[in-house]
Amino acid sequence: MAVVQITLVKGRTREQKAAIAAAINKAMVEIAHSPADHINIVFHEVDREDWAIAGKLLPEYIADMDRK
Amino acid sequence: MAVVQITLVKGRTREQKAAIAAAINKAMVEIAHSPADHINIVFHEVDREDWAIAGKLLPEYIADMDRK
Amino acid sequence: MAVVQITLVKGRTREQKAAIAAAINKAMVEIAHSPADHINIVFHEVDREDWAIAGKLLPEYIADMDRK
Amino acid sequence: MAVVQITLVKGRTREQKAAIAAAINKAMVEIAHSPADHINIVFHEVDREDWAIAGKLLPEYIADMDRK
Amino acid sequence: MAVVQITLVKGRTREQKAAIAAAINKAMVEIAHSPADHINIVFHEVDREDWAIAGKLLPEYIADMDRK
Amino acid sequence: MAVVQITLVKGRTREQKAAIAAAINKAMVEIAHSPADHINIVFHEVDREDWAIAGKLLPEYIADMDRK
Q: C touches which chains (3+ CB pairs under 8 A)?
């Protein structure tokens, strides 16, 4: 049994999510031996303005990194 | 004190959510003896394309189950 | 499909958790029409010192409430 | 390293979120000595109808409180 | 940027967790193009008695499945 | 109303947690205007072996950083 909650910034396509879910499921089945029908993977997408690193919202944080 | 975070696929009505919240609250108060004013229940609704079981996004997972 | 993550202060018995899980599952099946084998309920128990309300750890918060 | 997931009712401005993130980051750096580049703060905003206290969705819960 | 919170029943070894983290990170970098230093993966391990499916704690749920 | 779930590596003292909770609560009250009695802050502490960055468990990730 496994619940995998992925928090991400918006913008991935359906194909990307399908590929990520397949890869994580494979790892959970092969390495952790979790039964596939009980592996739930959920994507929670948020806006860039709803994520902060080092106390700065992502638009500012990334702009600062690019400047360096 | 209790925090109950419910992750669900989109599509429940306000009435369904109200009934679910009332039932969970009743269980937490009567069985766990949590004080009602400190029982927070939050619904996080996601798209069907944002949930995977057995490594397949729900639209594919459900289509596969129906085929069996 | 539903994932219900319950954060609680430590101290409930196995019997209480079993009864809470049964009640929540019943609500999710009967009201939300989620399929039972895909309703995952997880209890995350934390120490009273790991929970704060109104900016006070629970031992202090509860002592303050009792004083009033 | 810290992950701070904040669940809130919708309605805060970008400026409020930036100020909250800055304040939380400051606390985590100064008090917990977490390295700033590894402090992730994420806001999950939900509708008022997706939050319940004491088993009532927020619109009803708040209306009840105001009546008292 | 990604936060991956994995809730699991206790019992995986350090080696299993390291291999799972490596596989998930690879998927997030190659498919989602997240920067590796900002991919946080956290394992939350709970007791089997703290997880329920279909309203039954895992020891009972698994015993029921084995009987069928 | 706010739920703040903080995931941290083990090792902070009760005093540190009390100070962090007080600071976060202050920010939520003053900036977000959340009512203090409905601001729940919960610390989830995990072992260093249960956290990975860049696909490496923290003991390895930190050792790699120190080497550079």
A: A, B, E, F
